[in-house]
Every structure is written in structure tokens, then in C-alpha cells.
Write a structure and sequence with these properties.
Blueprint: E1 2-8, H1 18-26, E2 30-38, E3 46-53, E4 57-61, H2 73-77, E5 82-85, H3 89-99, E6 105-107, H4 108-114, H5 123-131, H6 151-162, H7 164-178, H8 181-189, H9 194-197, H10 216-236, H11 240-243, H12 246-255, H13 260-264, H14 273-287, H15 305-325, H16 329-332, H17 335-342, H18 353-366
Helix pairs in contact: 4-7, 5-7, 10-12, 15-17, 15-18
Length: about 375
């Protein structure tokens, strides 16, 4: 496979044009994809490099250069072209503004998990174990937004797509031997849905920990504050923690400040937050109509022993089945899944699709 070492768009010495590459992608059997991005200072990730592999070659495309990427869209969106990625979720999020939904995806991390590797197995480990190829690790902390990129950085980036097709072939063969092709088809069918890639402000509270320990009114306040923070972070394109750290948000929920002074007294409160956002936050709290006699937050409640015992029993059974199948238990059911099942949630993940046949029916019987 040919390697184009100079990023297309940063240098024209390779003789290519972005239009020619777009035609190549549209006619290709598959496209191997990976991205390098930065998001330390932003809410939305900034695409810094796009790595592409076809049956003929692999190359890097420079999205920070003057060349527009629209000519690649037809190939990216083509339903007849398989897009092969590893741990695709973040890459799909980064590529969405350019290309929208990418049909016919293949995620080598998902396929590997179904074949018996750890559910979060890394690309380099998988390439070594499956293909016997050791990849260098020297550029893991590269600032991909800097230009020019060195030859070593380009080689490192190309390695991330050079082996995707061979991995796909090997994993498909393994899953066929295990009779798990339908498992993979189900998992890949749900990959890349926008509701899984992006956080709606009204759902931002789901990222917070410990809400179940709070009284209902405080739970509602936490949801409103999380939604406000998510919207503000998106509007300003800044990390959530820059807008309002989790510990400060939780302190607001616990203490329920009603005046600027009470808000400013919260530990770790940023100096300018009260000045710039205090009035808005206090209005949000007032809009929730705090009870006249809001009880102080009590001690952390201990889980119900009977409920805990049920979840443990379900977890033991899940681990037993996972051991028999030689896969990670969390692939069958996470603890949150088991808690939902114990609470009678008929839509819990273990009760749907291939998981129901493998583990869900037995878990429901164990209840």
C-alpha cells in the first residue's frame, strides 16, 4: 500500500487534488478513517488531521490548510463504501460537521469486543495481537494543530489507518467462526446516531454523579443547572468545566444560594462567575420555586439491601455467562443496565436484540 507522507492540502508535491481523492473514495470498496483533533480549550473538537486509507494507499488530509474538504463528502456518504474505524464515536462526532451521518460503518473495537478482547481494547494492542505488527508510540502527545508536521508525525498518523482493513477482515473471520455475525450487525446498525454523539442540554444531567442521593427538588435543580451549563458551553464553544466545574455545580445544588454573597461564598467559585453569570443563576434557582422550608441535605443514603442483593445476583449471573462466552461482562450488561432491569425497566439493554437471547432471558428469569 502506497503511503502519501505529505498532507494533501499542505503541500502539492504529491500531484494529487482533493477532487481526485473524492472520486477515488466514491469508487473504493472501503475507506479506513481516523482523525487527530484538539478539544482542551473548546466544547467542540477541532479537527486537525484526517487520515484516510483505500485499497491502493493511505494518506493524510490537512483540514487546517486552504483546500476545502467538500469534494470528499460523496465518498464518505456513499452507502456502498464501508467506513472502517477504531473506537469510532469521537471521530464520528468530529467528522459530523463536515459530512453528517456516515452510513455503513465498521468499528474494529466493537468487533474485537464481540470476539473476546477487552471492551476498550486499543488500536495498537489489537494490531499487535491480531496482525503481529508493533506500532511506534512516540507521537502520542503531539500537538496536531501545529504546522508543519514532521515526517515522523505523518508516519505515526498513517499507521492509524494502514492496518484497519486487515483488522476488519481478521475480526470478521473470527466472528463468523463464533457465529456472532448477527451480534456485530446489530451493534454497527446503531453506531453513529446523533443522539449518541451529542449531548442535548436537557439530558446533560445524566453526566452528573450522585443525583440519586438528593431529594427530588434538588435533583430538579441539578438538571436545570446542567442544562444551563451545557447550553452556555455550546454557545461559547468552551469546555463545560470552564463554564462551571462539577464540584461547584454540586455545591450550588446542596447549598441553594439565594443572594450574590451566598453564591460567591461557594468553595472554588471562579472570581468573575458571580459578576458575569450570578444574576442569571439566581434567577434560574428562583424559577424552580425552592420550598419555603428546604430541608438541609441529609447524610448519604445507604442503598436498599434487598435491591442491592438483586443487582448483585444479576451481576453474578452476567459474569458467569460472560465467562462461558469469553467476553467482557459489561458488553452484556453494565451495572446501570442491571439496576434498570431490577427496577422493572422493560426497555433495559439486556432485554433487546442479541443480548436478550444470550443473557436477557436468563436475567429476567432470575428476577
Amino acid at each position: 500500500m502506497e503511503r502519501v507522507r505529505i498532507p494533501l492540502g499542505a503541500d502539492s508535491r504529491d500531484g494529487d487534488t482533493i477532487g481526485e481523492l473524492g472520486e477515488e473514495l466514491s469508487a473504493s470498496q472501503y475507506i479506513g478513517l481516523d482523525t487527530e483533533f484538539m478539544r482542551e480549550r473548546t466544547y467542540r473538537a477541532q479537527l486537525c488531521l484526517l487520515q484516510i486509507a483505500t485499497p491502493a494507499r493511505c494518506l493524510c488530509v490537512d483540514p487546517l490548510g486552504p483546500v476545502p474538504l467538500e469534494p470528499l463528502a460523496a465518498g464518505m456518504r456513499a452507502g456502498g463504501v464501508v467506513k472502517i474505524m477504531h473506537a469510532a464515536r469521537q471521530d464520528l462526532e468530529v467528522l459530523w460537521p463536515l459530512f453528517g451521518a456516515l452510513p455503513r460503518l465498521f468499528d474494529t473495537q466493537i468487533a474485537a469486543a464481540l470476539a473476546g478482547w477487552p471492551s476498550q481494547v486499543g488500536y495498537a494492542d489489537l494490531v499487535k495481537q491480531v496482525l503481529g505488527v508493533t506500532l511506534p508510540k512516540g507521537q502520542t502527545r503531539t500537538d496536531w494543530s501545529r504546522r508543519p508536521l514532521s515526517a515522523e508525525q505523518i508516519e505515526y498518523a498513517l499507521d492509524d489507518v494502514a492496518h484497519l482493513a486487515n483488522l476488519r477482515d481478521a475480526l470478521e473471520s473470527k466472528l463468523a467462526q463464533l457465529g456472532r455475525e448477527t451480534w456485530l450487525a446489530e451493534e454497527l446498525a446503531s453506531l453513529g446516531r446523533p443522539e449518541d454523539l451529542f449531548v442535548a442540554p436537557e439530558n446533560a444531567w445524566e453526566r452528573l454523579k450522585g443525583l440519586n442521593e438528593l431529594d427530588p427538588w434538588r435533583q430538579g435543580l441539578a438538571r436545570e443547572l446542567a442544562a444551563w451549563r451545557e447550553q452556555r458551553a455550546s454557545d461559547r464553544n468552551r469546555p463545560r468545566s470552564w463554564i462551571l466545574p462539577d464540584n461547584v455545580l454540586r455545591a450550588m445544588v446542596m447549598r441553594v444560594p439565594r443572594t450574590p454573597a451566598e453564591l460567591a461564598a461557594i468553595e472554588d467559585m471562579a472570581p468573575g462567575f458571580v459578576e458575569h453569570s450570578g444574576e442569571e443563576i439566581l434567577a434560574l434557582i428562583d424559577a424552580q420555586r425552592p420550598p419555603a422550608k428546604l430541608a438541609p441535605p441529609g447524610p448519604r443514603q445507604r442503598p436498599d439491601p434487598a435491591f442491592t442483593a438483586v443487582v448483585k445476583r444479576l451481576g453474578d449471573l452476567t459474569r458467569q455467562i460472560a465467562t462461558q462466552l469469553a467476553i467482557s461482562p459489561e458488553l452484556l450488561a453494565t451495572r446501570r443496565d442491571l439496576e434498570a432491569l431490577a427496577q422493572g425497566d422493560a426497555a433495559a439493554a439486556p432485554l433487546r436484540g442479541w443480548r436478550y437471547e444470550v443473557v436477557g432471558e436468563r436475567l429476567r428469569a432470575a428476577l
